[in-house]
Each structure stands twice: as structure tokens, then as C-alpha cells.
Amino acid sequence: MAHRTVTVSNPSWLKKDLDQLSIQQEGQEVGRVPIEDIAVLVLDSHGIAMTQELIVALVKVNAAVVYCDEKHLPSALVVPFEGNTLHGKTIREQAECSLPKKKQIWKHVVQAKIAAQADALEACHATSRDDARRATTTARDLRRMALTVKSGDPSNVEGQAAAAYFPALFGNEFLRDRDLPGTNAALNYGYAVMRAMVARALVGAGLHPALGVHHRGPMNSFNLADDAIEPLRPIVDEAVVRLDIRHLEEVKLSKEARKALLELTVCTIKIAGMRTGIEPALARYGASWREAICGEGRKLVIPTR
User: Fold this and answer.
1) 268-271/28-34 β-pairing
2) Is 285 within 8 Å of 271 (Cβ atoms)?
3) Which residues sit opposite 13 in a β-bridge?
4) Residues 6 or more apart whose Cβ sits within 8 Å of residue 15
5) How far apart, in whole angstroms, are the C-alpha atoms of residue 200 and residue 189?
6) Tell me, what DSSP letter sits at residue 74?
7) 3.30.2320.30, 3.40.50.2000, 3.100.10.20, 3.60.20.10: CATH of 4-61
8) 22, 82, 209, 301: which has the fewest C-beta neighbours closer than 10 Å?
């Protein structure tokens, strides 16, 4: 199974050579990686060119390719159209998924996300007495809120939970705004990396990432990935909390911060009560989404930290 995330941060020429990704800079080869090992390829420099042959080879192993902008934040994601032999059948069933089933799935997603937020609060503020007291109180409130989520979350308990969660995790002055630097930029980067991995897992399970159960943006090619990532966001939040604050005070997200967040791609998480690497866990998670959407309404099996 592909398990490596490869980041290219300097002007480079990328090509396929003997079933391997060859990275060349200034006419010299500086790196070589078996293509079959690549799960995610992050292109983090404007001076990168790659061959069509390499792109096709990456598609065949169901690798996700992430393109970053001038601020080093992921701005585009490419995944294969076909990552599963039952792709056509699965997509037909996915498109025919009933609204009541979608609402039930979203209920489970929101409940899992809020529970994960409570876990993150307790894990990140276990040392300071005052922070721990607030974290414990907020986490308890979040767990109670999770129990009130109804099918489709018509009362937007998800939003109410976020309003309590982010200040408790990052401080009262924190405002979640995608356009702000610092902590917000780090969250953007971490979420984008996790989104790429989740999209890859969904495609690998035969699902189409544009056909969401809750997110329905007509211009969004990854609505389902945006649904599926929600319970995993607190994993990213924890990683950002633990970053060296110096790397968050720069105008652009530092190389050290990006490197630390990319470690999410090799972390271990729990699924179905077992701890494993994030790649096999997400593969199981993607299969669970297929079963929930296309099967008899089985409850999602959602990873936790």
C-alpha cells in the first residue's frame, strides 16, 4: 500500500524513470522514490515541471497531487477519476443515495466531530491547571451537545460547538478566519493535507468526491471529502496547538511548521478500537463511507486520535 508523502519545495524537473519518481534540480538528480510508494505528492514551488508520463503513473497508483500557492498553502488537489474497479456501479448508487440516509450520515459525522473536539481539548490542556479546568468544562459541554444532534443537524449544533471549542483551544482572542496568517494559516495547511488524504481514500473506495451528503457546492469537486474530513479536523487542531509559536508568527507559514504538519501523513490513529497508521485507517474509513452510502445504511466507522 502506498504510504509516503513526498514534498518538493524547490524548482525541479520531475519525471518517471524505471517506475520511480526522479527529482532533478539544476541538471542533477537529487532524489528518487518508487512511484508505487507515493500516497501524496506535494508541489510547493512555482518552478516545478513534470512529465505527462509521471502524471499517468501517479494516477495508476491512486496518488493525490497537491499544488501549493505563493504562501505555501495548498490551493489545488488532483485525484484519479477511477480508483476502484467498481467505480461506475458505486457512483450510480452514490448518486441515488436517499436524503434521509444522507441526513443520518451527517448526524453521525457531526457527533463524531464534536466528540473529537472534546478529546482534543482534554489532550492539549492537560498540564496547566487553569487551562485544564476550562478544557474539562468545555469538553463536558461539547459531549452534552453531541447528544442533542438530530438527523441532518437542523439546529446547527456543529456551529454552536465550534463557537465554544476554538476559543477554549487557542485562546479567547482567536478568530477562525481562513484569510488570516499565523494559527489560521497553519490550520489551513493541515486541513488541506488531511483533505487530500481523505479524498484519496474515498476515490480508492470507488466513491466520487464531488457527490457529498451535506456539502453540495456546485463548484466544489470535493464535497464528499469535505464531509468526511470533519471528524478528523481536531487531529489537525492538536498538531497546530503543539507547533512552536515562533513558526506561527511569520508572515508566511514557515518551512518548519509545514514540515511538522506534514508529519500528520505518517501519524498513527485509532479505528474500530485498533491503533494503526493513518493510511490504512483512512482506507478503512473510505470503505466505511461506501458501505454507509451504498449499502444498507451501516453506521460509519470513524477514526479517532
Assistant:
1) unpaired
2) yes
3) 24, 49
4) 21, 22, 24, 50, 51, 53, 54
5) 17
6) E
7) 3.100.10.20
8) 82
303 φ/ψ sector (left φ>0, alpha ψ -120 to 50, else beta): beta
Asked if 195 and 226 count as a contact pair (C-beta separation under 8 A), the reply is yes
- Identity (one letter) of the amino acid at 29? E
The HSE-up count of residue 180 (CA atoms within 13 Å, CB side) is 10
CB distance 285 to 303 below 8 Å: yes
Domain 87-294, CATH homologous superfamily name and number: CRISPR-associated endonuclease Cas1, C-terminal domain (1.20.120.920)
User: Is the distance from CB of 200 to CB of 228 less than 8 angstroms?
Assistant: no
Q: Look at residues 232, 206, 227 and name the one whose alpha carbon lies nearest to residue 216.
A: 227
Q: What residue spans define the domains of the chain? A: 4-61, 87-294
Tell me how far apart the terminal alpha carbons of the chain are, to the nearest angstrom: 22
Grid cell in block for residue 271: 479505528
Enter the pTM of the model.
Answer: 0.84
Instruction: Name the CA dihedral angle for 222, 225, 226, 230, rounded to a multiple of 10 degrees.
Output: -170
- Grouping H, G, I as helix, E, B as strand and the rest as coil, residue 104 is helix
pLDDT value at residue 297: 63
pLDDT at 245: 72
Give me the half-sphere count of Cα atoms (radius 13 Å) on the Cβ side of residue 121.
29
pLDDT tens string 228-282:
999 999 999 999 998 877 767 766 788 888 999 999 998 999 999 999 999 899 9
- Which residues in the chain land under pLDDT 70? 1-2, 81-87, 126-130, 247, 250-251, 297
Other CB atoms within 10 A of residue 235 CB: 21
